[in-house]
Amino acid sequence: MSRTPDPHDFLGLDAGLAEEERAIRDAVRAYAKDHLLDHVADWYETGALPAAELAKGFGSLGLLGMHLEGYGCAGTSAVAYGIACRELEAVDSGLRSFVSVQGSLAMYAIHKWGSEEHRQEWLPRMATGEALGCFGLTEPDAGSDPGSMRTRAVRDGGDWVLSGTKMWITNGTVADVAVVWAQTDDGIRGFVVPTATPGFTANEVKHKLSLRASLTAELVLDGVRLPASAAFPEVRGLRGPLSCLNEARFGILFGVVGAARACYEAALEYTLSRSQFGKPLAGFQLTQRKLAEIVVEVNRAGLVALQIGRLKDAGDLHHNHVSFGKMANVRSALSVAREARSMLGANGISLEYPVMRHMANLETVLTYEGTEEMHALSLGQAVTGLAAFR
């Protein structure tokens, strides 16, 4: 006999998760309830984040670099990593960004492109949260077009000397190591830069109206001198940084399902408990239509994420699949957040409820790791065979 659908997992997607994936879901969800949910509104309001404490907690759960193999990393499935991102972003996009930048940008870059010395030096400590990393690609005048970056690395004897500025760098002010991409005479190359190196400065970006429970920095490299061994040995051009961005986007397309779910659940609970004109708001036709629309969006995004995760685990994932997921799921999550905000009425703008915080965060998520426009062009090229980027 069929069961009545669960309002919190309408299509029963989690029933199809493997045992490890369910265990990770439960562990992250429990950690979030015990250590994150009661504090995230204050972190958002103050624009502060206890980075060292969070790194230790996430490291103890095995979340940092969890989808990487060896060097103290858990080596989980891609879907398991995605589920962890979903549960973190159900709390706040900034917390998922914290884990995503550490594992899918900084650690992945070192794991994929670094030397064995880089891996041995940094990855074990980054996996436990003892060391934090950041990823320096975006610049003030080079966002969607990273090939136009101005940061440059030049040879000086046996050393490299880096000069330039990076912008919108998550965890930059607390990082122990930065992966920095720079122009060289041999094309764009990546460098492992300890942040204590003279000439390296990280300046906090203030006055943000979104992603406030996240630490964002401007990196200034003023004649930063590094040994020859600091450079990634093999990779040249944009292939290196774009491969890292693809890993981070994968976490996003799962993560925003959590943000959308949190907004839907807040709207459901609110409209069931709030009465007007003698009955709960949830009893009115217009409210039920809104709830029906957003539960469809949440579950559709969950299906997209799960299918893309299965493709990744099977070795069949193409970067256009990730563009599809990032574009579709962020759009769905924003739609859910905006509708849920209206359903809460005036309370929808209060930090006592999570909806407006998620809605504001998702405006940033729509832009970073590739704007919606860039992903639309990627999909357009995939289906037509014609590039329209320039």
Offer a few descriptive terms.
single chain; 390 residues; alpha+beta; Butyryl-Coa Dehydrogenase, subunit A, domain 1; Butyryl-CoA Dehydrogenase, subunit A, domain 2; Butyryl-CoA Dehydrogenase, subunit A, domain 3; 4-stranded antiparallel beta sheet; 3-stranded mixed beta sheet; 11 strands
List the helices and strands and how they pair.
Layout: H1 19-36, H2 40-46, H3 51-61, E1 69-70, E2 73-74, H4 78-89, H5 93-113, H6 116-128, E3 133-136, E4 152-156, E5 159-170, E6 177-184, E7 187-194, E8 200-204, E9 216-227, H7 239-273, E10 275-276, E11 279-280, H8 285-313, H9 319-343, H10 355-367, H11 372-384
Parallel strand pairs: 3-6
Antiparallel strand pairs: 1-2, 4-5, 5-9, 6-7, 8-9, 10-11
Structure report:
This protein is an alpha+beta fold. The protein folds into 3 domains: 13-128, Orthogonal Bundle (Butyryl-Coa Dehydrogenase, subunit A, domain 1); 133-230, Butyryl-CoA Dehydrogenase, subunit A, domain 2 (Beta Barrel); 239-384, Butyryl-CoA Dehydrogenase, subunit A, domain 3 (Up-down Bundle). It contains 11 helices and 11 strands. It has helices spanning 19-36, 40-46, 51-61, 78-89, 93-113, 116-128, 239-273, 285-313, 319-343, 355-367, 372-384, and strands spanning 69-70, 73-74, 133-136, 152-156, 159-170, 177-184, 187-194, 200-204, 216-227, 275-276, 279-280. The strands form 4 sheets. It has a 4-stranded antiparallel beta sheet, covered by helices on one side. Strands 3-6-7 form a 3-stranded mixed beta sheet, covered by helices on one side. β1 and β2 form a beta hairpin. The radius of gyration is 21 Å and the shape is globular.
